[in-house]
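Need a sequence for this fold. Nothing fancy.
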């Protein structure tokens, strides 16, 4: 006797007609034609059943603040940082908590159940850290939130940032962040990477830095982060976020850099939506895309997880909480259009990011947590193409969100009377 059986699901690995049984909040069986009783039986109708989406790079202290105190006119990263600096002194814990909780509602409705958020610790009041720690506790029953101590204005550049970052870690933030390309000089950037890796090593914490979010082909902070990872014995615990400069670097240099990153067991977290928008701003034409070298990193065995970075904030006036939007942009900007590449991008918004965040019990395997999303699509490639409705979002076997299927009614003479979008994919398009 099970608590729940989802019948006739398609799994991301291509298995069809699978029955997935849940007992005690965990996946207890996966097999076709399961002969068993359950408290509840749901017909998955052949739709894709996936583990939940995971966002390994986000800013929950800034989300949903678009327009406060004004809009970003130039659209650049630097005006976004300046605008956030104007907003920061006016932030209150109550407003931060309310915006973050509202965003988490949206995230859950999109099947996004784990988020790593950078938290700006530049303001010595640390109201952001206080608020996000409260949010981490309040959403814990439905969303796993990891918090990175992020010195937005520069670890050495901003007065008081060193002490504030230490204090925020003492308060309970989970991960050491950084922003070496925003320090005053390349040397200061390198020193900040070394100092922050030392702190992580001393405290036994992971590292996740904004690293080389620039179009500068000569920026060298990715190399420094890899080298300091090895020097401090942090292999497997360090992620580099953005890595945009790798787009502009000389190919010979990258042929040396990627193996160094692999040696350091670094993870890469590109943010395609925001970087296609922010980078290349000093170019006329050709205009660079500013997205790091995703297929080459994947080919080297480096874990690549895709993040949203921003939703409706000073840096990005778009975003929807949908990680399939992120995969969709990555697919186009990197030209990863083959079936195998689409599947790799689906992994980059699910299992890869779960691995980077160290999520326990994640996955569609017997014994894993019964955390699952039923999508109105037939396979991962179609999920990226359609960014379809999340018919069901489950955590520990409990339904957190439901969305009705998108079906359009037609009144066309001699034509079908309805359109169900997944039906339109040619069956041999694998
Ligand atoms: Zn970021």
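Here you go.
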């Amino acid at each position: 006797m099970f608590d729940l059986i989802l019948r006739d699901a398609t799994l991301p690995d291509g298995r069809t007609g699978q029955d997935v049984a849940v007992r005690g909040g965990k996946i207890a069986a996966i097999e076709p034609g399961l002969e068993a009783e359950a408290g509840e039986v749901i017909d998955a109708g052949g739709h894709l059943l996936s583990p939940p989406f995971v966002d390994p790079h986000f800013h929950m202290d800034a989300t949903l603040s678009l327009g406060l105190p004004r809009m970003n006119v130039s659209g650049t990263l630097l005006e976004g940082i300046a605008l956030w600096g104007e907003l920061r002194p006016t932030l209150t814990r109550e407003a931060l908590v309310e915006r973050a909780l509202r965003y988490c509602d949206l995230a859950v409705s999109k099947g996004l159940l784990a988020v790593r958020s950078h938290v700006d610790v530049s303001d010595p009041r640390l109201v952001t850290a206080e608020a996000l720690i409260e949010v981490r506790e309040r959403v814990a029953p439905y969303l796993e939130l990891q918090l990175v101590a992020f010195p937005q204005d520069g670890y050495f550049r901003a007065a008081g940032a060193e002490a504030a970052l230490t204090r925020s870690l003492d308060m309970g933030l989970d991960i050491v962040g950084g922003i070496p390309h925003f320090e005053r000089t390349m040397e200061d950037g390198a020193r900040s990477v070394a100092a922050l890796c030392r702190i992580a090593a001393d405290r036994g914490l992971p590292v996740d830095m904004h690293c080389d979010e620039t179009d500068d082909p000569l920026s060298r902070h990715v190399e420094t982060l890899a080298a300091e990872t090895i020097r401090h014995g942090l292999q497997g615990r360090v992620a580099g976020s953005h890595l945009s400069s790798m787009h502009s670097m000389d190919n010979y240099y990258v042929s040396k850099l990627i193996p160094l990153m692999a040696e350091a067991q670094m993870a890469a977290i590109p943010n395609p939506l925001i970087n296609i928008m922010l980078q290349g701003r000093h170019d006329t034409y050709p205009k660079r895309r500013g997205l790091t070298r995703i297929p080459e990193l994947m080919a080297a065995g480096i874990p690549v997880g895709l993040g949203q970075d921003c939703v409706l904030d000073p840096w990005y006036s778009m975003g929807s909480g949908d990680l399939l939007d992120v995969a969709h942009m990555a697919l186009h900007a990197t030209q990863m259009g083959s079936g195998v590449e689409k599947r790799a991008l689906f992994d980059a918004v699910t299992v890869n990011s779960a691995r980077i965040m160290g999520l326990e019990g994640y996955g569609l395997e017997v014994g894993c947590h019964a955390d699952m999303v039923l999508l109105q699509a037939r396979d991962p490639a179609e999920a990226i193409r359609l960014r379809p409705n999340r018919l069901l979002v489950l955590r520990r076997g409990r339904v957190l969100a439901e969305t009705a299927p998108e079906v359009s009614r037609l009144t066309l003479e001699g034509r079908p009377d309805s359109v169900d979008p997944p039906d339109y994919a040619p069956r041999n398009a694998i």
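For context: Residues 57, 59, 118, 210, 309 surround zinc ion (CB under 6 Å).
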